[in-house]
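Quick illustration for those who missed Monday's session on complexes.
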Amino acid sequence: MPKLSYLKALNRALGDEMARDDSVVVLGEDIGVGVAGVTTGLLARYGDQRIVDMPLSEQAFTSFATGMAMAGMRPVIEFQIPSLLFLTFEQIANQAHKFSLMTGGQTKVPVTYVVPGSGSRTGWAGQHSDHPYSLFAHVGVKTVMPATPSDAYGLLASAIRDDDPVVFFAPSGALAVRDDLDFATLAPVPIGVGRVARPGTDITVVALGHLVHMALEVAEELAGEASIEVFDPRTVYPFDWAGLSASVARTGRLVVVDDSNRSCGIGGEIIATVVEDHRLLAPPKRVTRPDGAVLPFALELDRAVQPTREQLTAAIQAVLKS
Amino acid sequence: MDSAELYRTVRLIRRFEERAIELVRSGEIVGGIHPYIGQEAIAAGVCGALRRDDIITSTHRGHGHVLAKGADPVRMMAELAGRSTGLNQGRGGSMHAADFSLGIFGANGIVGAGGAIAAGAAWARRAQRPADSETGDVVAVNFFGDGAVSQGVLLEAFNLAALWKIPVIFVCENNGYATTMPVEAGVAGTITGRAEAFGIPATTVDGQDPECVQAVSEAAVIRARSGNGPSLIECMTYRFDAHHTFEHKARLNYRSEDELAAGRSRDPLDIQGARVPSEVLSRIDAEIEELLAEAVRFAVESPKPDPADALDHLYATGLRVRTGVNN
Ligand SMILES: Cc1ncc(C[n+]2csc(CCOP(=O)(O)OP(=O)(O)O)c2C)c(N)n1
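Prediction with thiamine diphosphate bound:
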């Protein structure tokens, strides 16, 4: 079977959605040549009125897309680096997100914001290594973060078709992941529906984005000790609480691994919700970045503030023992 | 628009605002408003040059723009009073009034935020236009104050609009103050110079005279529709009233009595009124009184929204979210 990388899946989804709906227009910096790989080849196919290279004006082009969307288009913005989301937070959280409610449902803002390469980019230091998905969940902007190529394809397609703004995080740690798959099976994946990435009976490990792959490896390593279920929410907001609840009801134990800063990260929300709704067999644990973390440059330091395999293994073992 | 119609718009905005201030004082409008009194000639003149399908984006001081573009004053007053019969079903209020069926893409509470939205909407309309369109290009107008010209995002929007000859008109209402900051203290260089730096032609016009504003706007509209790109119009005006209806409580002191008197002496209502026969004036005035009496009655008597529906329309897809307490 052919192999599809995560990055290629994004490229394919974009091309397919542009083909099926000519109101889909992509905006971004250096997307004509496809610097990030997401838009490779699309300029030649669709021309410069649908693959629009933007000057370095993130705030303007983010709200420009809002205007386009309110006039009936489906813009997709590619952001070169995740921290641009801080620069455009006003345009996304305070403008695009709020228009539907503030106008009493008179308009909709179907913009997709794609961030290819979120999180640690290995050696890119403080301003290029943020991973702000929890921030968007907090304000209620739909937020997806697939772990696999087929989910990347399917969630990007759904994000583009969705009538609300959607932030699409493609973690840098997942971009190189490849799947063996039949391309004919690629299809939209519904927003808000998680998946059990590995079934198990003793403990539920919730992992997000690239950490799903780490969780699967740890589960395999610990297979002799315990039967570990790995739950991949795929969508950060709205979260698949029913899917998670079903998993925890089976296992009774919970660990969350989340590449967010600890305070107000989605990991804390997951634990709070589960303990409100379930009587767990042991206190849950979470593995996250430290509070308020800024990723330092040196590789050892960068790694020191991201969730590690050792931390996850220890957390699982501790919860299993208590 | 002819002289009488322009007068009618100015008068409608003036009386709408005066009635709205009464409702603020009586507590029917909560949160207050930013009165547009004194600046009505700009909304009337600019919107007088527009078609129904043209687009506007407005500001925190947006009643005039929204009314001049044709929004129903009755539903607008209900919106200010937070009623479910309002333009936005009580979800927007004064700073977010919108009517998309008339191209009114909303007032906006963030200074400078409307420029890029207008540019994007105009770009999209041009892209959507069928090749054989007879009606010509839709134009978008972005209104903003002198304070907004210090916002980076607005200047970024100038750049995009000029680069791509987007049919958008930037209308700066220079009333001399950003809240209490005099324009000289906040703006280096000139406002027209801001636009000219991007190759956007800019004109300064008497913003107290609706016909002057309309004439300059018509030229900008022709330029935009014929594919020659954006323009900026700086309208010199004066805010007769407070920045916001809370200002009298704060007793802010930043304008002298002399200055206020000089500013108020150039009232767009008088300037335009002088061009209209007195019997026409009294007929228009009477019609507007009747209309606004109806607006106030409708606003006050309309039902308040049901708290159970507070988050209706949060998502265009109808997504329902978790409540704040766990039952
Ligand atoms: C970006 C932003 N900064 C500050 C405010 C608070 N604020 C509301 S109105 C205003 C003054 C705006 O001045 P100007 O643009 O000249 O418009 P005017 O009020 O004179 O009509 C300020 C500072 C805001 N709403 N948005």
